[in-house]
Design brief:
It is a single chain. This protein is of the alpha+beta class. It has nine helices and 14 strands. The chain has helices at 4-13, 95-98, 178-186, 192-195, 204-208, 240-336, 351-357, 360-368, 377-393, and strands spanning 23-27, 35-39, 48-57, 65-70, 76-79, 85-87, 90-91, 107-114, 119-124, 127-133, 145-149, 164-172, 200-202, 216-220. The strands form two sheets. Strands 1, 3, 8, 9, 10, 12, 13 and 14 form an eight-stranded antiparallel sheet that branches. Strand 5 (76-79) and strand 6 form a beta hairpin.
Length: 394
């Protein structure tokens, strides 16, 4: 439980309710009835904004304007009959839905826009009435421009006369959530706008105090015992109810913070587990990569060894072929050497000699030509030479 003394501290820092918080503005039905002021820098609304107001129509103009920010293609316009919900060059027409609300009856309207998705959303009495994509532009920024409440900022024309009552017209520097819009539209005498004070770029209190043109008069609202967030018994301080609301909001915020911390802890736990899995997976991949690199090195070594073996085998085979050829030549040469023996040398060659030497099967045809010829060294050399020539010719 929050200590009681905190309530008194909160009372001291809570935004005060202005004296005009129970007053609305009534705009006449001429082109001169409006509030206009110039702005030179609208940077805080450049990428997102929300404009909300309580509205009561009392005059039937074709295109009544609640508020208009100009320059045209970088501005926005909110109308009271739905045919003008205009943001950076694109208009959202909701006249049919606005037409379901009778003139003379209070209703709440809120229009939001953000460059995150470049979408305009309009809420009527807390419920979304429609949405539309806009051009990819920004609001105002550092451009010189002007605001007009009650008519068009570009030209004061009878077509755009508002002619009705406005209450709690506020421009916020961010997109309000659906829940915030619903709370705001649930009770026109609530203090929801004050709760969102830190996000208000243009406050109702400030717009209320700006110079007025023509017939723009003050009327009282929320005075029948239901003043905005103030009990009759505590009206002297004008703070207690707000502080109680802030205490309630603080308790809710503390609960949301606790839930957020729990969610964060869950996310961190999940991320830690996933990180551990990722690390484990990376370690396995690294190990497999090392193994693969080792296998690749071994494969390269085996390939080098195989290539070396192949070279050795090739060299051995080539040498073998050379040796075979040499053996053949040696064999040819050696078989003629049999005639160098005393048994045959200087003797006349006979068929019996040819048979004895075993040359009949290989060289019988040649030797047959020399039967009866004396075997001399010159004849043997001639036979060897003749054999070599025959081999070459073959």
């Amino acid at each position: 439980m929050i200590p009681v003394f905190l309530a008194f501290i909160l009372v001291a820092v809570t935004p005060s309710i202005a004296e005009d918080s129970n007053k609305a503005l009534r705009f006449g039905n001429t082109t001169n009835d409006h509030i206009t002021w110039a702005v030179s820098d609208l940077t805080e609304l450049e990428t997102q904004f929300s404009v909300c107001s309580w509205v009561r129509r009392l005059f039937n103009a074709p295109y009544p304007v609640i508020i208009h920010y100009y320059p045209h293609t970088h501005g926005f316009l909110l109308g009271s009959r739905g045919n003008h919900n205009y943001v950076v060059g694109r208009n959202l027409n909701l006249r049919t839905k606005y037409g379901e609300i009778p003139d003379g009856e209070w209703f709440h309207v809120c229009m939001t826009w953000s460059s995150t998705d470049y979408t305009t959303i309009v809420y009527l009495n807390g419920e979304m009435a429609g949405s539309k994509l806009t051009r990819h532009k920004t609001i105002g920024g550092t451009r010189d421009g002007k605001f007009t409440v009650g008519n068009a900022a570009s030209s004061k024309h009878p077509t755009y006369i508002f002619g009705g009552d406005l209450y709690k017209l506020n421009i916020f520097k961010r997109v309000l959530s659906v829940q915030e819009v619903r709370k705001m539209s649930a009770n026109m005498c609530s203090d929801e706008e004050v709760r969102l004070n830190e996000f208000r770029s243009f406050r109702w209190e400030d717009i209320f105090s700006k110079p007025r043109s023509g017939s723009v008069t003050e009327i009282s609202v929320c005075t029948d015992g239901q003043a905005p967030a103030v009990d009759q018994e505590e009206e002297s301080t004008g703070q207690t109810v707000i502080s109680e609301g802030i205490l309630e909001r603080l308790e809710s915020t503390e609960q949301e913070l606790t839930e957020t911390k729990q969610q964060l802890a869950t996310i961190q736990s999940t991320m830690s587990e996933e990180l551990a899995i990722v690390k484990s997976t990376l370690a396995e991949i690294s190990k497999k990569l090392e193994s693969t690199e080792q296998e690749l090195a071994e494969t390269k070594l085996n390939l080098a060894q195989s290539e070396e073996k192949l070279r050795n085998v090739t060299e051995f085979w080539n040498q073998t072929l050379i040796d075979i050829e040499a053996d053949k030549e040696e064999e040819v040469s050696s078989r003629w050497d049999v005639f160098y023996s005393e048994k045959y040398l200087d003797k006349k060659l006979t068929k019996e000699m040819i048979q004895e030497t075993g040359l009949e099967s290989t060289d019988g045809d040649i030797l047959g030509l020399f039967v009866g010829v004396t075997i001399t060294e010159d004849l043997i050399d001639y036979l060897k030479q003749r054999h070599d020539e025959t081999v070459i010719c073959l």
